Amino acid sequence: MRVIDLSLPIADGMHVYPGDPVVKVKVAHTYECHSWELRQLSLGSHTGTHVDAPSHMHPGAATLDELPLERFFGASRVVRIEDPNWPEGRGLFFSESVGLECFVRLAELRPPFIGGELSEELERALLGIGIVTYTGLQGLERLPRGTDFIFYGFPLRIVCGDGSPVRAVAVVAAENEQ
């Protein structure tokens, strides 16, 4: 078994989507003054590697705290746009930029989640039919092609959450390692 971290590190001043809140990570308590260390975080709900709830782009749609945990992990596969057969019943991840041209095909498959570099139009359309999306992933090229892996991308349990940073992890079975 191999565990692959697909998450961007969260750091003070890191790049964010234009107009999103600036990330601030500051030391609030130190060992010397408090006998423990503690950081204060200030960031947007769509910082770094994150999951988007349908409510992100659709008023009144499901929020993170309303979605069952099963929506944030499961059997998954990396696919390419030109692949003739995308598997059913799995999360799908794209290692290339994907746009609205894939929406009909994805809507027919109804995967529990989709990840990768998704256009805003595709993301809006997917969230509109209740498919959660993961963006800000790194290292998708390290995942095996043509075989399943287990993906985990749990959000914080934010009341009325429209999105949340996640620690995105793929677990690849030994027989599927490259």
TrEMBL record:
<protein>
    <submittedName>
        <fullName>Cyclase family protein</fullName>
    </submittedName>
</protein>
<dbReference type="Pfam" id="PF04199">
    <property type="entry name" value="Cyclase"/>
</dbReference>
<dbReference type="InterPro" id="IPR007325">
    <property type="entry name" value="KFase/CYL"/>
</dbReference>
<dbReference type="InterPro" id="IPR037175">
    <property type="entry name" value="KFase_sf"/>
</dbReference>
